[in-house]
């Protein structure tokens, strides 16, 4: 009684499939065979409509893989690249748990493409289809110049003396650093 270990066939090992065979009285002596494999690729990523008015943030969404390979999806690996570049960059250092990610820090003026891969206990899926190119723009409406509430006054000082000007001002959309 107990579990029997079965060596995978060499052709199956190259496909990254894992086989377990459990024996030992399950279902009155019958044997049960379970196959798990890498998941299928997730759906094509698309731009979420609620982020069109945000300057440097892009939210992308995708659909879960149709087949998880018999093992639950542990997370998603999201990558982006500038259009035309062969180099893919991870958009997040950790696996993304939901089929959605908001990416920041993309450079304005460039067109980006995204792809997503799913990971389960066996391995990582092939990449999804590429997203449509997304152009990151710097929105002028999000940036406003400060408005001063009083006039600057003249000041007189001697050489190597420190002079300070304090100006009350109004500003909308203060940038975060």
UniProtKB/TrEMBL annotation:
Entry superkingdom: Eukaryota
Keyword tRNA-binding (UniProt): no
Record-level GO BP terms: sarcomere organization
Domain Fibronectin type-III per the UniProt entry, residue ranges: 41-140
Keyword field contains Repeat: yes
Alphabetized InterPro entries for the sequence: FN3_dom (IPR003961), FN3_sf (IPR036116), Ig-like_fold (IPR013783), Striated_Muscle_Regulatory (IPR050964)
Signal sequence residues: none
A GO CC annotation given for this chain: M band
Keywords noted in UniProt: Repeat
Name this protein carries in UniProt: Fibronectin type-III domain-containing protein
Organism of this sequence: Acanthoscelides obtectus
């Amino acid at each position: 009684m107990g579990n029997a270990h079965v060596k995978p066939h060499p052709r199956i090992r190259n496909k990254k499939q894992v086989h377990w065979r459990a024996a030992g009285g399950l279902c009155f002596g019958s044997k049960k065979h379970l196959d798990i494999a890498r998941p299928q690729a997730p759906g094509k990523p698309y731009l979420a409509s609620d982020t069109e008015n945000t300057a440097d943030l892009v939210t992308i969404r995708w659909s879960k893989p149709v087949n998880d390979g018999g093992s639950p999806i542990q997370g998603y690996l999201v990558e982006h690249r500038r259009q035309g570049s062969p180099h893919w960059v991870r958009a997040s250092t950790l696996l993304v748990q939901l089929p959605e990610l908001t990416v920041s820090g993309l450079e304005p003026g460039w067109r980006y493409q995204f792809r997503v891969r799913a990971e389960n206990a066996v391995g990582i899926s092939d990449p999804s289809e590429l997203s449509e190119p997304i152009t990151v723009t710097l929105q002028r409406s999000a940036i406003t110049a400060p408005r001063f509430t009083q006039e600057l006054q003249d000041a007189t000082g001697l050489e190597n003396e420190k002079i300070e000007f304090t100006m009350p001002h109004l500003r909308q959309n203060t940038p975060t650093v």
